[in-house]
Amino acid sequence: MVNNIKHRLMILSVLLLLSTGCANQPTSLYQQLGENEGISKITDNFLVNLSQDQRILHHFEQTDIDIFRQRLIEHLCVVSGGECIYQGASMFNAHIGLHISQADFDAVVSHLIEALKQQHIPLATRNALLAKLAPMYQDIIEH
């Protein structure tokens, strides 16, 4: 009987340790952004912000906004570690011939940051996403 109680206590201890370990695991960037629903809201805010900026609006005149929205959601999902498939062009190919200046790029980034703030994404999470996107700068900016 004593062995049975010890055995049960040992199993309970192991289960408690395992559940504590699971509870303390950090969430992924994808989860911190609110998964697909959160990324969709961020994207929608971002598109509204872009649509109100006359400095860069001309870059989107020939863009199918519904497709652009879907590709951006896919892209942010993949970049943040979600299990999505990005079906769009490479960043380089998507931006060829658009003549995106440093000022244009900075404006777009500022609108993304604002969209993240509108969804109450914490600073550390915003910075983590921007760090993932930053290497794409060379493929987007006009050379």
What this model shows, in words?
The chain has 8 helices and no strands. With 143 residues, it is an all-alpha fold. About 8% of the residues have low confidence. Pfam families: Bac_globin. One of its GO terms (molecular function) is metal ion binding. This is Group 1 truncated hemoglobin.
Radius of gyration: 22 Å
CATH-defined fold name: Globin-like
Low-pLDDT windows of residues:
12-22
CATH class: Mainly Alpha
Number of domains: 1
CATH structural architecture? Orthogonal Bundle
Give a short overview.
The chain is about 65% helix and about 0% strand. The protein contains eight helices and no strands.
Which helices and strands occur, and which strands form pairs?
Elements lengths: L1 H22 L5 H4 L2 H17 L13 H15 L11 H5 L6 H17 L4 H11 L3 H4 L3
Helix pairs in contact: 3-4, 3-6
InterPro entries: Globin-like_sf, Globin/Proto, Hemoglobin_trunc
Protein name: Group 1 truncated hemoglobin
Pfam family, one: Bac_globin
